[in-house]
Amino acid sequence: MDVTVDEQGRVYIADGDQNVIHIYEPSGNYIRKIGKEGKGPGEFTMVTLLRHDDTQLYALDMCQRRINVFDLASLEFSHAISLSQEGDGREELSSAVPNAYYLHDNGNLMVSYEESMAADQE
Questions:
Q1: More confident: 120 or 30
Q2: Is 73 exposed, middle or buried (0-12, 13-18, 19+ CB in 10 A)?
Q3: pTM of the entire structure?
Q4: Burial level of 21, CB count in 10 A (0-12/13-18/19+)?
């Protein structure tokens, strides 16, 4: 689904079939996978876009409307950022799903939403 390379040259590949992120050394040797299919912390139902800064890897799960964040030093799950619009008073976004995000140098996220297909079928 997506690929990114950190400052150390490690390659991160979002695998949408297995809902994991595969990590490779710059030489191509496999390091490990992070995440797994599920709905718990650090798990995915639809892993898509990857981004990173100096210390963290960010992975969008469109279906769960969140970004799972992993520590680049330990490659362990750190925390999740909810992108759900439920209950925040923005009715126009209640059925929207995040489809893209951008990580700014200051650590802020800019998120793009689109109308979900499920909402179109109602």
A1: 30
A2: exposed
A3: 0.85
A4: buried
